[in-house]
Design a protein that fits this description.
mainly alpha; 0% strand; rod-shaped
């Protein structure tokens, strides 16, 4: 590890000596091009950050979930359920009771009973206590 550090330090000192041994015009030209490269890199990264920021803002604006989209989602769900029901009625009427049971179970499972009123855990007596 120490030898590697030594080689790196001697290499960098050789590079510095090579730059210093150049004529002043070439040295100035190299330093000027390096300065321009750094400025261009800075401008590029700033422009890239601005572009990324604009893209992120557009994604945020696009991702807003409004009441209108919620209403349209409910409409699509209702229309699809009605279409499936109509297809079942005309194609396979034997499946209608199962389909109705599925709809009723899904409706109860998704919280339609929520609006009737909540029962707390204390109100429901799942396992009656033994009488002593």
């Amino acid at each position: 590890m120490e030898q590697l550090e030594y080689e790196v330090s001697t290499r960098s000192s050789r590079m510095e000596s090579q730059f210093l041994s150049l004529p002043q015009e070439k040295f100035d030209k190299i330093m000027e091009s390096d300065k321009i490269d750094r400025e261009n890199a800075f401008k590029y990264h700033m422009a890239k950050l601005e572009a990324d920021k604009e893209i992120d803002l557009k994604l945020i604006d696009k991702g807003n979930y409004t009441n209108e989209t919620e209403r349209s989602n409910w409409r699509y769900l209702l229309i699809s359920i009605l279409l499936i029901t109509i297809i079942i009625i005309f194609q396979k009427p034997d499946y209608l009771p199962e389909w109705g049971a599925l709809l009723m179970g899904s409706g109860g499972g998704f919280g339609l009973g929520y609006y009737k009123g909540k029962q707390s855990i204390e109100d429901t007596n799942v396992m009656p206590a033994e009488k002593e």
